[in-house]
Structures
1.
Amino acid sequence: MKDLKWRRIRLKTKAVDDCRPLIFNPKFPWWCSGTAGDYSYSIIIAFLPVGEDLMKYWDDAYDIDEEKVEGVTFTSRFAKPEYYKE
């Protein structure tokens, strides 16, 4: 089995108007997937390296679901952000 070095994380944050990470790092892509719960939270998809503290970026993250992956992948829904630096 390959050494998986990334985590693909789905989380909720109470920030609705501005759900950007507290610390911006162009090596770690993220997307706002939408808002829900009568606009009481945002759903974020983010890639972080294994060992990187999620709470440093979204300190109010909850309902966190993550999986270890080989690397950062992009799709038509989660396209490569212009800021992303590999």
Note: The chain has one domain: 6-69.
2.
Amino acid sequence: MRSEHIIITNTDLERLLPVVDQHDTPASDSLASELHRAEVVDQRAVPANVVTMNSEVVYEDCASGVQRRVKLVFPKDADGARGHVSVLAPIGSALLGLRVGQTIEWQVPSGTKQLRVLEIRYQPEASGHFDL
């Protein structure tokens, strides 16, 4: 689990609560915990450096230095071949709500990873796309 301060938009929260309710898995339980402790802000007021749903993010595995670009999506839109990572995947739920420069330790199936958000290449809210 993480202790970093995270930010979630009101719209993302409204859309994610049913997702959590529809899944009975450790991943959905973990996401529910994150949602309940997050600072909720209006989608029009979220800082542009925060990872929101449908954001395209570049993160770094701090141990290996490997960088990866992903799009954080709802489970129905997940597609590993296209780099679309579900918010219910360990990496997806770890990235949600983080800001550029923030580092997090997160439990993944192979152990603990430390990730750092390097860049947000696209955030819907910053681009004026409030209906994604």
Note: DSSP finds three helices and seven strands in the chain.
